[in-house]
Design a protein that fits this description.
This protein is mainly alpha-helical and about 80 residues long. Helix content is about 55%, strand content about 0%.
């Protein structure tokens, strides 16, 4: 697991165009090769991420439950098997 949070592991994520959780720290230390950094959005682009509120999640869940069959054509089981 240590490799995932090492600079080497974070660079592997970034080479796959994924945002590494330590990207901001690595940017400040100059640990991201310039050619790779040029291909990625700056970590500051991710600082304004917003999570939905519980109310928004409940509305989304309701919309999915009521529209799933018509949109996808597969019934959602009402209880776990």
């Amino acid at each position: 697991m240590e490799i995932l949070h090492s600079d080497e592991g974070q660079l592997a994520w970034m080479k796959g165009y994924a945002h590494g959780v330590q990207q901001a720290d690595m940017e400040s230390r100059g640990a991201i090769p310039a050619d790779l950094a040029a291909k990625l959005p700056a970590s500051s682009a991710f600082s304004s991420a917003v999570s939905p509120s519980p109310e928004q999640l409940n509305v989304a869940l309701s919309l999915i439950k009521t529209g799933w069959m018509t949109t996808v054509g597969v019934a959602i089981p009402t209880s776990a098997p």
